[in-house]
Amino acid sequence: MFSNNFICKGSSIILFLALFLYGCAALTVKRDDSMSVREYSYSYDEVWNNLIEVIVQKGDTITLKNKEKGIILTGYDRMTMQELKRIAKMPPLEISSGLAGAWLYARDKVDYSVSRTAPRNTHIKMTVYFQCYNASGQRWINIFTNGIKEKEIFDELELRLGQT
Q1: By residue range, what is the domain housing residue 154?
Q2: Count of structural domains within the chain
Q3: pLDDT in tens, 85-97
């Protein structure tokens, strides 16, 4: 008969292999940055000041702004599920979390990177984070953007810059 030591070692090896193979086989999804980058033919100061106004107008809470480094961070702000479904790629609940249940809450956060590319050219990169709270799993699930939030912010910024 097999000894307990052999069974423990064999079980440990099988468990390690299963976890290793599962981790290697996990789906990796890269964020699509094509919707979140824009170049403006305006000075850094004009773009920076108008972007701050757009962020505040949209109702996002600015938690950090550093003009020298070109960084603006917002905190997680609560949003309605209806709004999230309009601006995000909502997966079926069972696929995204592996659990049954319902989405209870939604929130979003946006990080901005602003840089001067020439005396009158300014580059903006926006990173949008959406999360939904799963009722049965009791955890926040990351959701990908569909580009609408980015487009709305960029469109509003372009409108403001055109008026200056």
Answers
A1: 32-163
A2: 1
A3: 899 987 766 555 5
What pLDDT is recorded for position 9?
A: 60
CA distance 106 to 32: 21
Give CA separation, 46 vs 5, 55, 67, 82, 120, in Å. Answer: 70, 14, 12, 34, 10
How high is the pLDDT of residue 141? 86
- Which pLDDT tens digit goes with each residue over 104-157? 889 999 999 999 999 999 999 999 999 988 877 678 888 899 999 999 999 999
Greater confidence, 4 or 51? Answer: 51
> Can you tell me which residue has the tokens 């979003």?
108
CA dist., res. 71 & res. 115, Å (int): 9
Q: What is the CATH number of the domain that holds 118?
A: 3.30.530.50
38 within some domain? yes
Listing DSSP states for 52-99 in one string gives HHHHHHTTPPEEEEETTTTEEEE--EEE-HHHHHHHEE---HHHHHSS
Strands (E), the chain: 37-40, 62-66, 71-74, 77-79, 88-89, 103-118, 121-134, 139-145
In a domain, 84, yes or no: yes
The answer to whether residues 99 and 93 touch, using CB atoms and an 8 Å cutoff, is yes
